[in-house]
Write a structure and sequence with these properties.
- The chain has about 150 residues and is α/β, with parallel strands linked by helices.
- Helices cover about 30% and strands about 20% of the residues.
- It contains 4 helices and 6 strands; from the N terminus they run ααβαβββββα.
- It has helices at about 1-15, 20-35, 50-60, 145-150, and strands at about 40-45, 75-80, 90, 95, 110-115, 125-130.
- A 6-stranded mixed beta sheet has the order 1-6-2-5-3-4, covered by helices on one side.
- Helix 1 (about 1-15) packs antiparallel against helix 2 (about 20-35).
- It is globular, with a radius of gyration of 15 Å.
- It starts with a helix and ends with a helix.
Amino acid sequence: MEKQKQLVARIEEICRDIAVNDSNVKSLVSDLEMAMSEPLSIALVGPFSSGKTSVINALLERDLLPTGLNETTQTIVRLTTTQDGEEFISVSGARHPLEKIKDIDFAEKQIVEVKIITNLFPPGTVFIDTPGIKSVFFGKGNAGIRGFSKC
């Protein structure tokens, strides 16, 4: 439970650092504290280039998912944590070593699955990174909102 309290404090700190509205931070912290007894799933949704992927990278303390000034996340990325096993990325059913993540073209894919090893979060924690709202990719084919229900 101590790790989960530290997680909530860390999320609160990161949100403040990126200037998220204070009432939104309080609401987020309250929701996270209520959800502590269940496996944690965090979906990041917002305008494109608003820092959704950067928040995930900051929480994981890794420069893992690609970021940029333009619309970088063009599909739903479902990242699951574990404390052992193999790190990988799965695109259209094909597994690749995690170190290839920045070489993979995510365009037009339904959902990209990523599995990482970390002790920062309980095993099974899921982060869902989405294309930006109003992004040309958000509603495009299966990469958009229709694919979100599969997460």
